[in-house]
Known about the structure:
The complex is a heterodimer of chains A (325) and B (501). With 325 residues, chain A is an alpha/beta fold.
Amino acid sequence: MNGRIKVVALVLALATVSTILPSFESKAADFPKKPLAMIVAYSPGGGTDTAARVIAKYVQPHLGQRLIIQNKPGAGGQIGFTALANAKNDGYKIGFINIPSIFMVKMLRDNVPYEMSDYEAIANIQLDPVVLTVKADSPYQTFEEFINAVKKNPGNVNVGGDGPQSNNQLQVVVAEDKLGADVNFVPFNGSGPAITATLGDQVVASVPSASSATSHIQNGRLRALAVFADKRYKYLPDVPTIKEASGVEVPSIGASMRGVAVPKGMDPDRKKIIEDAFAKVMKDPEFIAHADKMGLPLHYMNARDFDAYLKTAAESVESYISLLK
Amino acid sequence: MFDNILLGLSALSDVTMLVAIAAGVLGGVMIGVLPGLSSTMGVALLIPVTFSMPPQVGLAMLGGIYLSSTYSGSISAILLNIPGTSAAVATLLDGHPMSKRGQSTRAISLATFGSCIGGLISVVALLFIAPPLAEFSLMFGSPEYFLLAVFGITVIASLSAGAMEKGLIAGAIGLMLSTIGNHPLTGEMRYTWGLPSLYDGIPLVVSLIGLYSIPEVIDMIAKRNQTERPLIDTDASNPFTFLPEVLSHKINLLRSSLIGIVVGIIPGVGCSVGGFLSYDAAKRISKKSKEFGNGSPEGVIACETANNAVTGGTLIPLLTLGIPGNPVTAVLLGGIMIHGLRPGAELFTLNAEITYGFILSLFVANLLFVPIGLFIAKYCVRIIQVPRSILAPTIMTLAVVGAYSIRNSLEDIMIMLFVGAIGFIFQLFNVPRAPLVLGLVLGTLAEGELARSLALVHGDIFAFATQLVTRPISFVILLFCFYALYQGIVQHRKKSKILDD
């Protein structure tokens, strides 16, 4: 009887140990063993979420496991970014981060419980610049005509855009500063409503994200005067960059970038596996074809470049943030 | 155009298409019945599933979810006094009293056939006159939205069920709650106590769950020892016997559909407002306006017809201009773009097969939710006979899970319980809850649009006031506001006179 109990106890003990043991191993070879979760700081169905879900689908074969989207929306991304900063760094929790929103939340609010040093960069996925648009029948044919009108009437030309305290508004204040102009920025509930207001003659011009304005520009209802980026936008090749249009260098820090990051201190081998998977998916022709069809402006940066970009961009945003307060 | 419709029909005759619609409708009915699962969530969660389907099949499924969940929120509103979706808040005012009288099947049938007819009429509008109607949606600027919100707030008089003062108090509390969160134009935080979960304001679905479920649960627990069971049906139990009754309300159906379509076309207003405005119009015009609030069939039909007519209306600016009118269609836009389709003229020419296939699938979905909804409702009706000691904890569980699942947030459960406490106090003092919902929905709209209107005229109040009377649409809405107020005051005076006598 006694012996039997001992045997049972031994079996139980072995069973327990055998379930605990694997978690001590950090051998890269058997990572990932289960699906990974990717925190998205915005609601299901939005632009960020859709982009995240598309990449999650195509990264699966390169990762060897499924990538599950976890939406943690709210407070302009703050809730999701905080969740990522506090997540376990065992490699099974990664996050989709939005730049410059992640800086702006931190810089504009008090008591934001994350630091940029809480994250390690994996890859940048897309870059969606801000574009200046007017209605098709607007008198302003070029950027020059528009900016001259603004300068003649400082502070009175209504320009609509996502806001308040959005990347679009940041781009507007940066451009105002560099071009010596002053517009009346009117915030709307997102780029879509700002476009609607432009089409309905509520505002003279608007500054939507290029991805949300592309279809309206292509079907001729809106005219784009300039794109706030260093290079022309892939899906709008005829629209000049702000430098081409104005001759002035305007930092494109308002461009919305979406990339992947992980909580700091992750095992380097595991991090490498995740990095490689995203590097591969960004070259995957099927993914690229799907992104093209959707109009997703892909822009790959590897971990090192993305990390360097984050550092310089943070400084640049910091120097302009006082203009938004 | 007719070749395009034929093209759409050929797309529709595919078996997978019909299966997709049926699956969407079935899923949508379930989502709508359960408070806490919203149409937006249903569509958002299924978009990844529709990735790998042909576009028209995927869209047909999403459309099925949207239409049927908008309808089926009425089932829980009628049976349990808990709206399944925000669109059903006005349905509950008369639907639940009918159910209490033992007319559950009748109330559900009225809601079902009303929804179906409203939905069908709105799809007809979408199919034949979408482009000119879409231009109308562009004529709505900030001053118009502001006045529309003000007009919506005058509906409080109709929702107060005779207790005007209490209705106004509830409406004011709703408006005050709507100011929680960041200011729509400056981003300044108000009453958030540093809690990030309050930065975006009190989430509507979470507060609806609390406001209606918690008082109901408390009430059930308080009455748990009463043995008398509510009657299911004193009338006939075959839902189709009520079809002639619905059809006899011709003018009500037509008026409610029109209100729904117009509200749908105006971006940013949505299904619940359509229901409220139509309910209000029905009550003002009805010869039996006293029955409203005590189980008036006209009220149920008006609200349900209108909120489903909104669905077709919202698709008009979405498909023709790429402008989503409410959260569901914003998500649906993502579902359209994911297939590489671009809303606009192209959608009706180059991709006519997909687009017309989708529009025609909406007809099928509108018809299909009638048998599916009634079949599910047949079993739901028995819920009211489940012992309260089982029903109360079940509803409580659903409320907690539902509140959590919207943003995966524990704080939202606290918000739900807090609003639930308000709801309980309201019920204790017989304060109507619908005006609070109206205040919460319209407060944000009114505040944001007023601020934006002023920003557009550089803060010049005189210029803003001139705009209100010189812009044609805003002038018309302004007249409506004055008329509503005038009529409200006259009726109130009349009532107090009767009391004095």
